[in-house]
Write a structure and sequence with these properties.
Helix 1 runs parallel beside helix 4, helix 2 crosses helix 5 and helix 6 runs antiparallel to helix 7. Strand 12 and strand 13 form a beta hairpin. An eight-stranded mixed beta sheet has the order 1-4-5-6-7-8-9-10. It is built from eleven helices and 14 strands. It is globular and about 50 Å long. It starts with 8 loop residues before the first strand and ends with a strand. About 50% of the residues are buried.
């Protein structure tokens, strides 16, 4: 169990530059630490020189400038206040473009007939070294929805929700990629500036993207999933109010990609298991509240599941030479309409869910 089970919390407001300045002043230590550690993390997966990595970061800025110049302005404010360069901050945003991503996250979204209401949740499986740089950050930008994310300091956005009813989780999607383009953290930030599923899809689709990703959402229009590739954004919805996703393509137009890219960390088995756990909840009326009555405790239990260990929903380090260092760094359950999320600092089987509220 972590010594402190809550992440540090920060709340900033104002213009893009002012948002960045306040982030840099408040979380400068974590920003500097993350920048210093980024290259080492990249080298763990792929060999690339520091000069080549920084060149890619520099070249990526023109794509961001074309997509959302105000987001780049925010990064400039972070850089000025924390004592790092904009190029170093951009390296944080593009590091997934420079290395193979073999982490495996499990996510789901509930809505419609599910009595708990709108929920989106996931286990975030990654490098445990990222814990030192992880914070809970609320941004209140001028003229746009306020939003709260659990994120590494220095990223332009990550997992969380806004005050317009949008909840966002993300997991890796094996598919074609390219070295340069708009990093997916910026397209996720575009979703936080949206207030509907239609606007969220547009925010992602209009970007000249660099890498594929899967975005699981809770929206005012219900659960939704975006399978994001370089050429398009495919939308998946759930007629019965339950949508699950792991790390392989589900949309009919993308199924052939699964034959060219191997699944990540037993993706198909994890998807079957999370479906089984969530759909089977109605068998225990006392715990679940009846048919389609999943409780918060039941969702936590599903995310703590160890079936098929070490490639389970709740993942732990093991002796696999390629993926054994990945583990469930945090687990998150987001209730966007309640403006709150429940997060574990570390694996959910070992640490409590702490609640964070956007007021």
């Amino acid at each position: 169990m972590a010594d402190n089970t809550r992440y540090l919390e920060y709340d900033v407001c104002g213009s893009p530059r002012e948002l960045g300045r306040q982030i840099g002043e408040a979380a400068g230590e974590q920003v500097r630490g993350f920048c210093a550690a980024a290259m080492e993390m990249i080298h763990r997966s792929v060999q690339i020189s520091a000069a080549s990595a920084m060149l890619a970061a520099n070249e990526s800025m023109s794509f961001v400038e074309a997509y959302a110049p105000h987001m780049l302005e925010e990064l400039r404010g972070v850089a000025d206040a924390s004592g790092v360069t904009v190029e170093e901050l951009m390296l944080l945003q593009i590091r997934n473009q420079l290395q193979a991503d073999d982490s495996g996250c499990t996510a789901f979204s509930l809505g419609g007939p599910w009595r708990m209401g709108s929920v989106v949740a996931q286990n975030w499986d990654n490098d445990p070294a990222l814990d030192a740089f992880t914070i809970v950050l609320t941004r209140r930008p001028e003229g746009k929805p306020a939003f709260t994310t659990v994120t590494q300091a220095g990223l332009i956005s990550y997992i969380g929700f806004n005050d317009a009813g949008m909840g966002v989780c993300v997991n890796s999607l094996p598919a074609p990629s390219r070295k340069l383009g708009v990093p997916h953290y910026f397209t996720m930030r575009g979703i936080y500036e949206a207030d509907s599923l239609e606007a969220a899809v547009h925010a992602v689709r209009r970007a000249e993207r660099a890498i594929p990703a899967n975005i699981v959402m809770s929206t005012p229009q219900g659960p939704a999933d975006l399978e994001v590739t370089l050429d398009d954004v495919r939308l998946l919805t759930a007629a019965d109010g339950l949508l699950t996703h792991t790390n392989h393509c589900e949309h009919a137009e993308l199924l052939e990609i699964n034959t060219r890219f191997p699944e990540l960390i037993q993706s198909h088995a994890r998807k079957r298991r999370i479906e089984e756990l969530l759909r089977g909840q109605g068998e225990d009326d006392e715990a679940s509240g009846g048919e389609n009555g999943a409780s918060l405790e039941l969702l936590k239990t599903a995310l703590r599941d160890h079936q098929d260990y070490p490639r389970s929903i709740c993942r732990h380090t093991n002796d696999d030479p390629h993926t054994g260092f990945w583990q469930t760094v945090l687990s998150v359950i987001i209730e966007p309409n309640e403006r709150r999320m429940h997060i574990t600092r570390g694996a959910p089987c070992e640490n409590p869910y702490e609640t964070y509220v956007l007021r």
